[in-house]
Amino acid sequence: MSNRKEQLIIVRGGGDIATGTIHKLHRCGYPVIILETGFPSAIRRHVAFSEAAYDGTCEVEGVVCVHVKDYEEAKQVLEQGEVPLLEDPECRILETVRPWALIDGILAKKNLGTSRQMADKTIGLGPGFTAGRDVDLVIETMRGHNLGRIIGNGSAQPNTGTPGIIGGYGKERVIHSPAKGILMTRCEIGDKVKKGQRIATVVTGHGEVAVEATLDGLLRGMIRSGYPVTEGFKIADIDPRESEYENCFLISDKARCIAGAVLEGLLYLEEKQGR
Question: Which residues contact 245 (CB under 8 A, 6 or more apart)?
């Protein structure tokens, strides 16, 4: 029987989709270290371990994540039964330790440097990776019949630029910045909003530009107030289903589906490789 405590997994990215995977792997007994940038831009912040980069710690569904400064501190956090997050977008930690597995959960729609040489088992989430070349396995992240499909040869579906349908709405539920500047929020995640309501302001060098709700519903996600944005940058997400308030603070069905596929993929690779 494998000793899970010795099977270190490094996950690149701590956004809400990656957090679903990290949460599941942690609960299954794997030690997981998250690598993030210095200024993550998660929309669904209440279910993203990346928030620890700002607040020092954060908790998602009973699992605590702690911002650490180096690998030695990360090991201490792991021994406490928590998940360490390290600012290390270039994966310099690999100069110190070779993980049992590495998962790219950045969801940048392109490969930002992950390769099969980084670990014995490598998995990429979403488009931008080719299984058998960049990584061992790719997990489909597009909503629909193939969500969570494990791909052993080839790539995930290309990014369409159109969000998945929730409550009958797709692109309408996602809000992008109307200008370059500093985002100053006026609403909180979980608030009920009305179409046309000002939910934030972008402060530019020439004044303020209003950010308005695109439909009635719940503010499902919004990046941190004070974050610098560019025109077209994704900044918020509205759920038209006003009955879904509690789900603003829970891991999504999509993230859980992808997490299950990652766990299956790792067990498959373990069986295939014999270790």
Answer: 190, 218
